[in-house]
Amino acid sequence: MTDLTKLEAELTARVGAAADLAALEAIRVEALGKTGSVSELLKTLGRLTPDERREQGPKINGLRDAVASAIAAKKAALETAELEAKLAAERVDLSLPPPPERKGRVHPTMQVLDEMIAVFADMGFSLAEGPDIEDDFHNFTALNFPPKHPAREMHDTFWLPEDEHGERKVLRTHTSPVQVRVMQRLNEKLPSWIANGQEPPIRVIVPGRTYRSDSDATHTPMFHQMEGLVIDRNIHMGHLKWTLDTFISRYFETPVVETRFRPHHFPFTEPSAEMDVKCDRSGRDVKIGQGTDWMEIVGCGMVHPNILRTCGLDPDEWQGFAFGFGIDRLGTLKYGMPDLRDMFASDVRWLEHYGFSAFQAPNTATGLS
Ligand code: DAH
């Protein structure tokens, strides 16, 4: 074996045995570095005769190439092994089941609101809104509540502290003030979402938050109402009855509903009535459209001429009817929730149970979405 082949065998054996990249680098420097054994041999070529160089040149260059490629191959192998060791150490077990995902649910009040809007929209009603913080005029005076009349206290009103004009605003006790805002043309500049002065004929529903200082299984300090108002020529109680019967039938998804008007008093309607619906209250849930019990479901009546006059409409030309539903209450009746207060307790477990999928059509029975 020549010295060159011996050196090549020795170097490639050491390269092959290198345990890690640092050991390999040391061998590279020893062989191919500036003063390495192979580099020293290459330097000797300059001192040889042309014939010797022709013979020795390819051998020494071959040695250098063989050692360099052995180092490169070993380097790649060591790097791969290092990467594999790292991947094995940092392995993520993708077969583990992911932690459960919590999906948001649509609150029953919002679901019921969408369902109610769908039914009324189908009957040609449009939406109107008013402010939660209301003035005494819209909440009471314009609705025919006499000044200092106990009816103002009847609503368990939340009064706000006196403002700089000596005025005490209220958290609206009902959505009825929006009736006045819809009908009365006002000069003041209001935000565009607040209803303001529509010309009759009018057909609006007014959903919104309302407030009363009251709390038990069927009352909460904040709740939602939906007001309805229709103003036109020759409107009578038959129109009111048809509208409410049709709504109740579609909302509760029962073809047969029996209702009755019971005389009542509201300052803003004359005559006033509460409408009862025939139902079965023998079980845990109230079943609308069956049974022999009656249950109050909505306050209503013919709009009082004083309201029309206050809003600048001639009662001899225009008449109308109005009604006010409790939105949350309609939800508890349709979806069987025993306690209204749970609606606003923000208990996620309750919401997961009673909430709705965001992709559910508002009312499948009417085919509306
Ligand atoms: N505002 C009434 C209340 O909160 C409900 C109501 C009754 C509204 C009769 C009306 C109506 O529009 O005509 O108790």
Could you explain the architecture of this structure?
The termini are far apart. This protein has helices at residues 3-17, 21-32, 37-44, 50-89, 108-122, 136-139, 151-154, 177-183, 237-251, 305-310, 327-335, 348-354, and strands spanning 126-127, 133-134, 170-171, 202-211, 222-232, 259-264, 269-280, 287-288, 293-303, 319-326. The protein folds into two domains: 4-89; 108-366, Bira Bifunctional Protein, Domain 2 (BirA Bifunctional Protein, domain 2, 2-Layer Sandwich), CATH 3.30.930.10. Helices cover 38% and strands 18% of the residues. It is α+β, with helices and mostly antiparallel strands and 369 residues long. 3,4-dihydroxyphenylalanine is lined by residues 174, 176, 227, 266, 269, 299-301, 322-324.
Question: What is the number of E strands?
Answer: 10
Q: Briefly note the CATH topology name of the largest domain.
A: BirA Bifunctional Protein, domain 2
What's the total helix number? 12
Helix content: 25-40%
Q: Between the first and last Cα atoms, what is the distance in angstroms?
A: 92 Å
The mean pLDDT is: 91
- What profile does the largest beta sheet have? 8 strands, mixed
Question: How many distinct folded domains?
Answer: 2
Strand content: 15-25%
Radius of gyration: 43 Å
CATH class designation of the largest domain: Alpha Beta
Please state the second-level CATH architecture of the largest domain.
2-Layer Sandwich
Task: Catalogue the ligands.
Answer: 3,4-dihydroxyphenylalanine
Low-pLDDT sequence parts = none
Q: Can you tell me the CATH superfamily of the largest domain?
A: Bira Bifunctional Protein, Domain 2
Order of helices and strands: HHHHHEEHHEHEEHEEEEHEHH
Oligomer: single chain
Structural class: alpha+beta
- The gross shape turns out to be rod-shaped
